[in-house]
Design goal:
Helix content: 10-25%
CATH architecture of the largest domain: 2-Layer Sandwich
Structural class: alpha+beta
Strand order of the largest sheet: 2-3-1-4
CATH superfamily of the largest domain: ACT domain
Radius of gyration: 17 Å
CATH class of the largest domain: Alpha Beta
């Protein structure tokens, strides 16, 4: 499960992520981080099991906003020509072409943006 955690300037200087890991004993994988002294946003991947709810609750108890990213890649079907240029650059093989459509396995995606940069039609973007 992928979560977007939004920090305000009060929480940037605190070890929020480390506190959540210590409290829940659930390891999280940081996929993306944009943080400045004014605030920031971190996208993390947590195991999609019974422990996920405790991680979400722990983030909320730390005072940061958290939301599940159910869909995080958008393919513009009006622009996509299913050429497959996005498939081979994907380091985790989350993309495949089935017939005339491109399919993304959202659970496998690590948000590296290789597909975004590889698409000649600029039909792929991260949400």
């Amino acid at each position: 499960m992928k979560l977007r955690v939004v920090y305000d300037k009060v929480h940037v200087g605190r070890p929020v992520l480390a506190s959540v890991v210590a409290r829940t004993k659930v390891l999280v994988n940081i996929l993306e981080a944009k943080v400045s002294p004014k605030g920031g946003e971190v996208v993390v991947d947590v195991p999609d099991d019974h422990r996920a709810a405790s991680v979400v609750e722990a983030f909320r108890e730390e005072g940061v906003a958290v939301e599940e990213l159910k869909q995080h890649i958008l393919i513009d079907l009006n622009r996509c020509i299913a050429c497959g240029a996005c498939v081979s650059p994907c380091p985790v093989r989350a993309i495949k072409v089935e017939g005339s459509t491109v399919e993304v396995d959202e659970a496998r995606c690590v948000r590296c943006q290789a597909c975004v940069w590889a698409c000649p039609m600029r039909a792929i973007r991260l949400l």
